[in-house]
Amino acid sequence: RARELEMDLHCETNNNDHHTSQISVNKLIVRRGQPFNITLKMAKPFNPDSDQLTMKVVTGKYPSEERGTMSRFGVSDKVEPSPCAIAVWKAELQKNSLPETGMLALTITPPANAPVGEYKLSAGLKAEENELAELFVLFNPWCSEDWVFLPNEVERQEYVMNQHGIIYKGSDQYIHGLTWDFGQFEEDMVQICLKLLDLSRKHKRNPADDVSARCNPIYVGRVVTNMVNKEDTNNGVLVGKWSGNYGFGFPPTHWSGSYAILKQWYTTSFKRVNYGQCWVFAGIMCSVMRLLGIPCRVVTNFQSAHDSNANLIIDKYYGDFLVRPKETDEHVWNFHVWTEGWMRRPDLAEDGRYDGWQALDGTPQELSENVFCCGPAPVSAILKGDVHLKYDVLFVSAEVNADVVSWLVKRDGSKVELFSDTKSVGQHISTKAVGSDERMDITNTYKYTEGGLSQQTDRIISVHSCGGFYSRRVGEPKHSWVCTNKNPGKVFFLLVFKISPLFQVPAEAKVYQKMTFKVNFKNPVNETLTGCTLTVSGSGLVRSEETIKYVFPAGKCAYTGAGFQTLRTNQSFKM
Fold first, then answer.
1. Catalytic residue numbers?
2. 5-138 placed in CATH 2.60.40.10
């Protein structure tokens, strides 16, 4: 028997309208609070006055209207949701419908508080019900009713749609940027990110409540901070390691993007990926948040404190003669990287004073509610000193504004305070600027401070040269300048290499066909360089990350891949 109902989801048109066409044009991916159009084809004429078309959407294994994970709705006023329904979908019959032929053009609107995730859509006449389609629902920063609404379109393009970014590393006196490929719209990223939520502790403990709570970006962001690390969950993505021994994996400096890590985790049945440090955790976190529709950016704090006893003080101990100093878990890192997600915080204040950027840290440092996660902590609360607020405002406040107290431990065990440093922690808090590759200093959003990097003297300004990847041609050098100090006894120098274009690509490249490109390189120093790798990745360009390891003898190159190849100075090789 022929199906009585058939549905056309108009995936390409709807996804384009919902800013999800970069994810897929074959699967329907919509954003909550925003209508989308479908066409329903019936085997017989439809009378809007007498016939009752009922539709239903469900998400999760235990859907219910009371939890917002199921909604019954229709094109007739006779179809009423349950009185206790909390996330009600709507359908409207369009004027271009031809009900006498059974062709119904419908506009469907998911509510702005719908849980994000995968939904099944069914429809039927009277008591009949036919499961017709699957769709995905994401957060919507374009919808004013959504808690993640971001009013500025330029910022939405940067913090939701941009697949490339810069993560800042180094020290407060030498800041340099690492280009990062977020790749949030790469193949299978919707499934990867939703699976990450499904494997969380909260979902395993109570799947019905967990899926229902995915309407809340505060909740979702907190779950993601826990799942990107492997510290206390069996299926976390990345193992953190700071010891320098990176056997059975890659060193954190290997990674240049998030997708290779997430894809490896997904395709190996959710086995941990080795290894990462703070900037890698933050890069993964940003990718997942942007895919889900939560505006997100990566933030670096230089001279970042780790306060383990929640008193906003970092204690350093020095031993008197023949006295072993007291050991402590507290320290100040030269830099630490986390993310910020944009969302409302009505749980803290109805007047919106804690809305906006929220600090979220995926690096496992301290337990929060008995799990390794951190945030969301309102940046405005950190600035105002409202350290009692959730989540983890006190901990993040210490990272940017703790005092460092030095103590002398005497032979009798007593302590004498040597010095209290109230200024060094929390320097040049940085993120990539909107719409450009410049560094934006956001220190004043976290703390009241005097001056900034531009007002200080005797600094070495970060200098690097690299191929660009936005509007610039691949291989075109990007330069900044150096300023050295004049302190006697300290000599600073910068060796700048004149770099010719690194990559030569053919004039024509075809999708899904192999492409050969040349890489020209030369070891510019009279020393053998070891442990070097060339990693090639790119959102929408290559299916997976490609890595080749090298040993660079002085003036020559040796390539270890499919066989061993020795290359003379300035000679090229093909990939």
1. 278, 336, 361
2. yes
